[in-house]
Amino acid sequence: MQTRRRFLKNAAALAPAAALAGRRAWALARVPLGVQLFTVRREAEQDLPRVLEQIRRIGYEEVETYSGIYTFSADALRHMIVDAGLRAPSGHFDYDDLGTRFEYATELGLEWMVCSMIAPTMWDSVAGFQTAAQRFNAWGKQAKAMGMRFAFHNHDYEFRPLGTGVHEKTGYDVLLQETDPELVFFEVDVYWAAQAGQDPVALMRELGPRLKMLHLKDRAAGFPISYDMNPDSGHFEPVGNGALNWKAILGEAERLGVEHYFVEQDQTRGPAIDAVRESYRYLSKMV
Q1: Number of alpha helices (DSSP H) and beta strands (DSSP E) in the chain
Q2: 157-204 pLDDT, tens per residue?
Q3: Is 262 buried (19+), middle (13-18) or exposed (0-12) by CB count in 10 A?
Q4: Distances (CA, A) of 59 to 49, 102, 284
Q5: How many angstroms separate the Cα of 74 from the Cα of each of 37, 50, 108, 199?
Q6: At what angle do helices 48-58 and 272-283 cross, to 10 degrees?
Q7: For 56-81, what is each residue's pLDDT tens digit?
Q8: Which of 207, 218, 226, 274 lies 20 to 30 Å from 50 when distance is taken between CA atoms?
Q9: What is the DSSP string of 22-60?
Q10: CB neighbour burial string for 269-281, b if at least 16 within 10 angstroms, e if fewer
Q11: Over the range 30-39, which residues count as b (16 or more CB within 10 Å of their CB) and which as e?
């Protein structure tokens, strides 16, 4: 029979571990880990239900949709996601047809409509980003009216310096300055920010409450920066296998109250699902 003294001693020894487990469980419940399905696009466009089941078995709780799977009706796609035990709070849409996709997004049950990038013809001028900002404001207003929110996802081209002298700014500066902070939010892709020479943590701090989601993928060290998404810009690694400071990134995300984390890897050396699994192993110990 266990004595009272031994019981108290054992309970004290177990308390730190229980507290840690509780904190980790709380963190995962508050910000579930998700996958941007573009990562597994080849498999998803062949057998989406199977891919969704694989993602759930790894431990992910959420997915973010993308245009390549909108060949399904919104109702059919929503059921596939739910049947796999997942939820889809966010979806990426192309700039050219996002304005026609609001009803589809609401039928899919999305909370967020995200513009994945603006048209390449707009990348090289302040005027191009100003036009995008005006459209983002309109989309943000429409999304709000339909019970959703609107956000923009970055790559590297937005951080190219535009203009000259005292008038020099980046496209990202334009989007921040000329969009309504109550209607337009941001999903930061930490890889592409770093690829453009930005400090992801500093960018997150600059965005503050406008930062609502993160794309998580790692970047190999020792490569030059870029501003044009060229084929030489891809130095992708599973989270934890590159040079990004994940402790600082995730710590700042928690401080700012980021709502969703989506693992994404544009290209993988082996099967994409293996890269997704590797990222999960690392992140599940961090959040």
Answers
A1: 11, 12
A2: 999 999 766 678 999 999 999 999 999 999 999 999 999 999 999 999
A3: buried
A4: 16, 30, 9
A5: 16, 18, 5, 37
A6: 20
A7: 999 999 999 999 999 999 999 999 99
A8: 218
A9: HHHHHHHHHS-EEEEGGGGHHHHTT-HHHHHHHHHHHT-
A10: eeebbebbbbbbe
A11: ebbbbbbbbb
> What distance in Å separates the CA atoms of residue 131 and residue 260, rounded to the nearest whole number?
28
Return the CATH superfamily for domain 31-283: Divalent-metal-dependent TIM barrel enzymes (3.20.20.150)
271: which 2 tokens? 């099967």
Q: Where are the alpha helices (DSSP H) in the chain?
A: 4-30, 41-44, 48-58, 74-83, 102-108, 126-145, 171-178, 190-195, 200-207, 246-256, 272-283
Domain boundaries, the chain: 31-283
Question: Helices 200-207 and 246-256, interaxial angle, to 10°?
Answer: 10
What type of residue sits at position 53? E
Q: Dig out the tokens for 125 from the structure.
A: 């001028």
**In this structure, what are the phi and psi dihedrals at residue 261, rounded to the nearest 5 degrees?**
-115, 125
Instruction: Kindly give, in sequence order, each residue whose CB lies less than 8 Å from that of residue 67, ignoring residues fewer than 6 positions away.
Output: 92, 93, 94, 116
Closest CA to 277 of 82, 88, 54: 54
- The token pair that represents 237 in the structure block: 């690694």
Task: Please give the Cα distance from 172 to 169 (Å, whole number).
Answer: 8
In the structure encoding, which two tokens stand for residue 23, read together?
């904190």
